[in-house]
Amino acid sequence: LPGGCLACDNHALQEAHLCLKRHYAAFPLPSKTSFNDSLTFLENAADVGGLAIALQ
């Protein structure tokens, strides 16, 4: 999460981060396959943002 942003609502950002983390964790993966959601968070957030724009 971005730090030092006085205009950011950190609680809301943390809630959104946890929601996105749970959402992507629910996707089934092939056996012996894993991913580090800390490394993919920005890509996941960009995917959600792109979908939100596309569906407007």
Give a summary of the structure in a few sentences.
This protein is an all-alpha fold.
Number of strands: 0
What do the pLDDT scores average to? 83
In the predicted model, the low-confidence regions spanning at least 5 consecutive residues are none
Total of DSSP H or I helical runs spanning 4+ residues: 2
- Taking all Cα atoms into account, the compactness measure Rg is 13 Å
Q: Note the gap between the termini.
A: 26 Å
Strand content: under 5%
Overall spatial form: globular
Pattern of helices and strands: HH
Query: Structural class of the helices, strands and pairings?
Result: mainly alpha
Helix content: 55-70%
Task: Outline the biggest β-sheet.
Answer: none
The tally of structural domains comes to: 1
InterPro entries: Peptidase_M13_C
Pfam family, one: Peptidase_M13
Protein name: Kell blood group protein
GO biological process, one term: proteolysis
Structure description:
The protein has 56 residues and is an all-alpha fold. The chain has one domain. Helices cover 61% and strands 0% of the residues. It has helices spanning 10-25, 37-54. Helix 1 (10-25) packs across helix 2. This is Kell blood group protein.
